[in-house]
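Q: C-alpha cells for this one, please.
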Amino acid sequence: MGVKCLILLVPSSLVSCRTQGRWLMLTEELGQVHQATAPVPLWFRYLVTYQESDGTPGLTLGVLLALLYLILKLLGLYKQWTVLLRTVRVFLAGERCGSAATRAECMEAGDVCPICQGEYRDPRVLICQHIFCDECIALWFNREKSCPLCRAVITDQVYRWRDGATSPHLQIY
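A: Here is the predicted structure, written as C-alpha cells:
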C-alpha cells in the first residue's frame, strides 16, 4: 500500500496517467503474488506437524494434508504467475490504443474531446474512426473494452488495477 501511495504522490507533470496506471497495475500484481506465497511455509509446517503426538496415523494425515495444500497452492500460483507475466508484458510494452490523429481529422471531428469536453490533448483515432484525448481514452479502457460513442469493441481485454484498486477477496490459506 505504501508503494502505491508513493506512485500516486509523483506529480502528473513527471508521470503521465497511463504510466502511473501501469505502475499501479504492476505493483498490485506483485502484491497479489506475494500475498499468495507468504503463508506457504507457515501453513506447510503446521500441516506436517498436525497431530504429530498421535503417532504414525496423525503424522500420515498431516503429510497428506500438506501435500494437498501444496498441490492446491501451486495450481493457484500457476494462474497468478501467468497473469503476472502478462502484466509485465503490458508494463514493458506501453501499449496505446488507436493511432495518432492528424490536425485535419481533429478539425473534422469538432476539436472537442467527447469525454473531457475540452480541446484534444495528444489525440488518438480508434479503429471505429472516433477521436479522443490519449489520457481520456486510456482511463476509459481501464474499465471498458468498447468505444464510448459507438460501443464497437476496440480492445480484447480490460486491465485490472490500473486505477490503484485492490482485490476485495479475502485470502484464507
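A few notes: Helices lie at 2-9, 17-37, 40-48, 56-93, 103-109, 134-141. The CA atoms of residues 40 and 73 lie 8 Å apart.
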